[in-house]
Amino acid sequence: xxxxxxxxxxxxxxxVERLKRELPDSLCRDYWVPKRVERQKHQQVxxxxxxxxxxxxxxxxxxxxxxxxxxxxRIGIFQLPLRTGDTFVPLTEQEERRILCLTDGKKKMxxxxxxxxxxxxxxxxxxxxxxxxxIKKVDLHKRSALLEMEFFGRTxxxxxxxxxxxxxx
Length: 169
Fold this sequence. Notes:
This protein is an alpha+beta fold.
């Protein structure tokens, strides 16, 4: 099962590395920070930069989350598994499937490609294909889309990189 761990924003990769060093291999099957590609313009050239898909969160795949509490308390770092009361709550199967669809095997969300037709954006290919109903805002200047989707029991805002055909902009 997948569990979401909260940590300081921009410290996700360091938290994963620390837990990899401190936790026994038998406790967790995988640790990862899902990333997204962001397009940025530097010196008139567009480059791709990777950023966390969910800032302030990383994921652990494990079967016994209660054992994690002991290690986190002993390590003394500020990671907290998402939970309801005292019970750790795994991601739902729907959330896992959605993350797998957005990313290439749960690691990175790439660039989507689309066109603008009759004032509406249509995604032709990429991770946002078929998810137009979740797009709340498109920023053509930054080549990004802001989506609102349900994750972790609440609405999360997610940014995705989008390229549009010039003749339709």
